[in-house]
Amino acid sequence: MHYARLSLLTLALLSIGFGSAHAAPFATDAAADAQAATWVRQMTLDEKIQLVHGAGMGVSPVGGASYIPGIPRLGIPALASADSAGGVGGLNVPDSKATQFPAPLALAASWNPELAHAYGRQIALELRALGFGEGLGGGIDLAREPRNGRTFEYMGEDPVLAGLLSAARTRGTQEQNVIATVKHFAANDQETKRFTSNSIIDERTLRELSLLPFEIAVKDGGVGNVMCSYNLLNGIKACQNPYLLTDTLKNEWGFKGTVQSDWIAAVNDTVPAVMAGLDEEEPGSSDDNAVIYGVHSHFNQWLKAAVQSGQVPMSRLDDMVARKLRTLVKFGIVANPPKAGGTIDVSAARALAQKVAEQSMVLLKNHQAALPLDPGAAQTIVLIGGHADVGVMAGGGSGGSGVQSSGAAPSANNPVACLEPKSSIGDMHMMTGCATYFTSSPLAAFKARAPKANISYVDGHDAAAAANAAAKADVAIVFATQWTSEDMDLPSLALPNAKTDPANQSYDQEALIRAVAAKSKRTIVVLENGSAVTMPWLTQVSAVLDAWYPGMEGGPALARVLFGDVNPSGKLPLTFPKAETDLPQKQISTTSLDVVYKEGLQMGYRWYDARKIEPLFAFGYGLSYTRFAYSGIKSHTDAQGRVTVSFTLKNTGDRAGAEVAQVYAALPASAGEPPKRLVGWKKVELAAGLAQRIDIDIAPQRLAIWNVHTHQWQLPAGRYGFEVGGSSRAVEPLLTETRLTGSML
Questions:
Q1: 130 Cβ neighbours under 8 A, 6+ residues apart
Q2: How far, CA to CA in Å, does 54 sit from each of 6, 73, 554?
Q3: Domains (ranges, CATH) in the chain?
Q4: pLDDT tens-digit map of 388-436
Q5: pTM of this prediction?
Q6: Catalytic residue among 262, 279, 501, 546, which?
Q7: Is 501 in the active site?
């Protein structure tokens, strides 16, 4: 009977588009809880301890980041996890055919929840094929500090954009019987002093901004694993913080999954961590008395002793174990354990990687329609710099590419040699300072797409030679790179040069761009970057395309966008400032451990709006090869307080394209909020000349503020304004207003 029910449910799920033919259906909460409780009653103390910590680094039979052995006598499978920010990779993953997608920040630039779902699904399929039941991607800390080395791993500066895309990715992953993770909980917004820094944030800012994407991921995405962060939050280690882990995550949000520590140094005291709500320590160890990277583990012998002495109640350990077990049951790991040696549909996966790259690229400037290029013209094109002859850049560290290694330099798979291997500026030097690249040559892709053109490459080391080559060409395309990585923050948002990044840059990129622009008829700049970039050379060039870290199909994707086969539709998920003096935090201190969020609610675009600072490029900004017009905006409010904003969107240009139509709300003045916040959006594809009536529903939660007196979400009473446009600073925003009755949510 059990197998019959399972088969019928599987068919039912497939019929409505969930999962794949090989995915087991989700168990009900009641069934998962009951099975977990039954197992807990049957387990010995040693077996319970075994399930709440990793077995140590490098012990997994399939590689990856962690491994928890199963309990065969009870039918509990082992669980291996792997880094998977943009594909199965990171550290300790054997060479494989795993797909390396564009970075999560690039995915955020697509503003496409359906694409995020597909991204999560494909990475899950590949995790399972390699023997992993848990993916450790899913970073959603906000880009409060754009110089943060992990900005590329996250989803931008807005909590609703990050939260909803994370929820979509989570569902795509977990439907394939792989546990998804969101991290780093919470306020882990820079890498400098990352193990000891103390994020000081007021309660309202914490709840409305830093914690909101996690709340959305838990409630809307149903995520199974939440990884707490290295930093302290208001004086308490995040992985030992009861307000975060128990009061908010478990009790208020109803999270039933596992709270997992970040790797190495996230825990410094056994009993406070357990009693605060931490359920699993990683990477763990077979011996808590051993020293790994200068620290001890805590959840093996030391936790056992704490239970035996009564410092940790058995009921708390049982809860930790039950959470792990019910998660394994809930998401089909028990019914369908992953096995290494599976197959990956490389063709389909790479097609998706290219689609993500194409949808995520943001056209920042296009003076006098410098783009797209004509693939059929007999023109001379010179590609300059950025190693565009061999590949495209990827981010570094555990959230970086599959060719990244844990040694002094990237592996032999890297097509670009490191210039000066050295440690980072972090306070525990675990990562290399050398950039990684995918062998996806823009030069080769351009030649394949435009066979009639005369296309060549100049490395950019000699600016004068590059400028002379540009002067002889019809088009010069300069590839500019900005390498970012875990364990280090950027010294500035300027394009790196030989002084600021000696491991990866042999020349001054900004001087190269100026030299080329001075002699070229048409200068295009392609950015491969992990965060915002300042552009003092912007007025001198014809066009700028932001490709982010575009993944292993970045070369072909760039060719299709630049030659017009794909109309760019990406929008910025974070603000690009004109200068770093415009940032709330003028510099990242290398001495103070306190990181004070002085800007409060004015984070990201809210800061620029409230302070009336003109950004270089606004949040939500992105051009197209066509044009879009908005008209007829109206709003309607139903009895439950749900607002629907309606408008007509028309493609007024001469080619098909997609527009991310964004809705921003201005709350009543009495609410004390920044000028506006993103409350909804829709990515709409339209043929040339066509118009479509768009409805965007806005739940009351998107309009709420955090009441620090009642410690609840509150919908303020008063008049709300709604703005619709193509960015947070649309040139001609369309306005409508509605009045809402205040209430607690």
A1: 62, 63, 64, 82, 88, 93, 96, 98, 340, 342
A2: 31, 20, 35
A3: 18-330 (3.20.20.300), 347-571 (3.40.50.1700), 627-744 (2.60.40.10)
A4: 999 999 999 988 865 443 333 345 578 999 997 654 444 444 456 899 9
A5: 0.95
A6: 262
A7: no
